[in-house]
Amino acid sequence: MTDQSTLTWPDTEGPRTVRWRSEAGVPAPKRVVIADDTTTADTAYRLACEGTALLWRGDYQNARQLLQAMARRAERKPRKGGAAPKAAASPAEAFHLHRQAQSQRARTLGMVLIPLEGDFGIELRRAPDVRAACEEAWGAPDGEPSVASLREILGLIGAHEWRKKGVPVAALGGAVIHPYYGVFSPVRGEYVDLVARTPLPSEELAFDIGTGTGVLSAVLASRGVKRVIGTDQDARALACAKENVARLGYASQVEVQEADLFPPGRAPLVVCNPPWVPARPASPIEYAVFDPESRMLRGFLDGLKDHLEPGGEGWLILSDFAEHLGLRTREALVGWIVEAGLEVVGREDIRPRHPKATDPGDPLHRARAAEITSLWRLKARAE
């Protein structure tokens, strides 16, 4: 038996217990067996579906191939005569069934485990050097061995490569933003384009609420805003934003502060790009995408009036994806704006350009195809 912070498995010299690592917040598996190059994909998939984890002791690249084979089995359609997948009665149910399937798939594929040395090295044949990727996500090694799922390690490697390569941003003249692990990446550039093209109410001061990578702060600075204050609560986001604005040459214009939404004071422009989907995150790193009960959205709206200078504007960047899924109505959004003592003075719209918007095979294709991202220009309503 194991708890959420340690993993125990049978070894030749008796049970061994080490630290369990999971950025997704997944508890350590309770049942663990040793697996190696002789373990078949069918056996591995059956054990994983039963809740038994496989601690890998073979060739690292073979573990990757095994994981790919398990993924193919997870994606197989039911055999003829088997139980058909439940049909969704509404877009909201389709969304929840999609997330449920994703969660089940993640749990199953997360059962292939890789042992890590105290310096995050992997002592398996043909294993890559993942130490830098692990340190970027987990911090400096403590010298203690640990175990993590292969699927999560591959995610760390992918995030490390994105951080090294960066994401070019057209609104910054093609300059590159380097996202940290767990910080929302500006790969969907349409929301950045909205901030780049909407007329500024002032060039004196702007607040960027939930700055993330700092991309919107950088765009505002590039447009001539003399002082920008970007806020966030996440330690990775704060470090990421500071590095990006410094790398882009805007450190003298942009100040990054730790804050719950708003910094002290008022500004003639307050910008916020909250998570767009009002659903419960399945893991801590999903808070960049999901806003449970629209807490950040409503917090921004409710506090905006008290942080706007007279005549100032609040820019809310929000997709209507949740509306097409039936998770939030346009009437509810407009009602929250009115309740917060605000009024809409303009709106800029843009269509998404990401591949899923034109993929009819996507289970949420209908909602994605209809999606529009908007920049809502808000002002304090005259009493």
UniProtKB/TrEMBL annotation:
Residues 81-92 have a biased composition (Low complexity). It comes from the Bacteria. Gene3D superfamilies: Vaccinia Virus protein VP39 (3.40.50.150). Keywords: Methyltransferase, S-adenosyl-L-methionine, Transferase. CDD domains: AdoMet_MTases. GO terms for molecular function: nucleic acid binding; protein-glutamine N-methyltransferase activity. Signal peptide: none annotated. Residues 73-92 are annotated as: Disordered. One of its GO terms (biological process) is methylation. The keyword Iron does not apply. Residues 203-319 form the Methyltransferase small domain. Pfam families: MTS. This is Methyltransferase.
